[in-house]
UniProtKB/TrEMBL annotation:
Domain Epoxide hydrolase N-terminal: 14-120
InterPro entries reported in the protein's UniProt record: AB_hydrolase_fold, Epox_hydrolase-like, Epoxide_hydro_N, Epoxide_hydrolase
Protein name: Alpha/Beta hydrolase protein
Highest taxon in the source lineage: Eukaryota
Catalytic-site annotation from UniProt: D189 (nucleophile), Y327 (proton donor), H388 (proton acceptor)
Pfam families xref list: EHN
Lineage: Eukaryota, Fungi, Dikarya, Ascomycota, Pezizomycotina
UniProt family annotation: Belongs to the peptidase S33 family.
């Protein structure tokens, strides 16, 4: 497959991988959907004017439950094993676009929850269109499924692993398995935490371009000094913490229960995950130009297809329960939290470089001055639209930022 030729220095156990879902698993999913009962309307799930103030609407679940595609097969895919700091190995799946240029910059693209490698398909598509010849592609793009997500192996049952262990696995993937030096990492959500740790601790990671970095108000800084847009961003963060993060506290304190529920019924998984996409994207990213209707409420057909494809991947790979582990670190209500973004040991100090892509409808937009306290901030780009799933919502913007950041900060083009 084009862009699938491994560069020199890649470890021998990296092997091509193809997605092939067994027919019986597809049949099982369809059977469960057909047997699952959708509850009747009530006050909470049918508020006037299409409101989702009290959660997902019943009409949405009625209309959007029957779509599955396998677009992931159009890109080169591989599997290999990588080690964490305890020297345990985990089988990792990754998509890639490999360049044939010797001076190509390695770029690691990291997803979060409830996302997956599917978030980066629009960006990879743009790159294939812009550089139709692998000999001209300036980058090696590596898009792994995080451990416990998609086609990557989950952590062993008898061990308590978290995001720092994932960062070690990603470092081993880039450093030892693929043999890359001076790579750049880009990510949001969980991927931003992993990316920050990599930039702070891995000698082979030169820079991190993030689009999510929730940081408490630093000492000595006032909200009065912020722009109106930054103040609006903080208000959105307050909404999320007060009205939108009950799911996170549940996944942090009762992940076993949540995992069991989500893994037993695809309709429950669709409701749980679908709500996050509806609430966290910028409506401007998925305008209802082509719509499906339900009780007078319009939704974007494109966004619905993205949700259904993402949920199908979680369901068919049986990873709804194995992908929740990071929440115990950053949303725990007792004991120390490890959000990574405001811990001194993960400060991205010079000569390492930090870049940031600011999107106004992120769930917790953070002011520039606050982010600058967390690292050597050398690149900042503020966008007019976009939300939590930036690579999926605004792939053109993320690609432009990435190319500018690599060119100006790593010195390659």
């Amino acid at each position: 497959m084009e862009y699938g030729d491994l560069p020199e220095g890649v470890r021998e156990d990296v092997r091509p991988f193809g997605v092939s879902i067994a027919d019986e698993e597809l049949a099982r999913m369809k059977a469960l959907l057909s047997l699952s009962r959708i509850p009747s309307t009530c006050y909470e799930n049918s508020l006037p004017n299409g409101s989702r103030a009290l959660g997902l609407r019943q009409e949405w679940l009625v209309n959007y439950r029957k779509k599955h595609e396998q677009i992931i097969n159009s890109f080169p895919k591989f599997k290999t094993t990588a080690r964490n700091c305890t020297f345990h190995t985990t089988e990792i799946h990754f998509m890639a676009l490999f360049s044939k240029k010797k001076a190509a910059t390695p770029v690691l693209l990291l997803h979060g929850w409830p996302g997956s490698v599917l978030e980066f398909i629009p960006l990879l598509t743009l790159l294939r269109q812009k550089y139709p010849d692998p000999a001209h592609l300036p980058y090696h793009l590596i898009v792994p499924s995080l451990p416990g997500f998609g086609f990557s192996e989950a952590f062993p049952v008898g061990n308590d692993y978290g995001v720092p262990h994932v960062a070690n696995i990603m470092a081993d993937l880039m450093d030892d398995v693929l043999g890359f030096k001076d790579y750049v990492v880009q990510g949001g959500d969980i991927g931003s935490r992993i990316g920050r740790i990599l930039a702070a601790t891995d000698p082979n990671c030169a820079a991190a371009l993030l689009n999510y970095s929730p940081i408490p108000q630093p000492p000595g800084m006032s909200r009065d000094d912020l722009t109106d847009d930054e103040k609006a961003g903080l208000d959105r963060g307050n909404w999320f913490r007060g009205d939108g993060c009950a799911y996170a506290l549940t996944q942090a304190t009762r992940p076993a229960t949540v995992g069991l529920v989500l893994s037993t019924n695809p309709l429950a998984l669709l409701a749980w995950v679908g709500e996050k996409y509806l609430d966290w994207v910028d409506p401007a990213s998925f305008r209802p130009r082509s719509v499906l209707q339900g009780s007078g409420t319009a939704y974007s057909r494109e966004l619905m297809e993205e949700i259904l494809l993402s949920v199908s991947l979680y369901w068919l790979t049986n990873t709804a329960h194995t992908s929740l582990y990071s929440y115990r670190e950053c949303f725990a209500i007792s004991g120390p939290t490890r959000s990574a973004h405001h811990y001194e040991e993960w400060h991205i100090a010079a000569p390492k470089k930090l870049g940031f892509s600011y999107f106004p409808k992120e769930v917790a937009p953070t002011p520039r001055a606050w982010i600058a306290t967390s690292g050597n901030l050398v690149y900042w780009k503020e966008h007019a639209k976009g939300g939590h799933f930036a690579a999926l919502e605004q792939p053109v913007s993320i690609l432009e930022d990435l190319e500018e950041f690599v060119t100006s900060c790593v010195g390659r083009d």
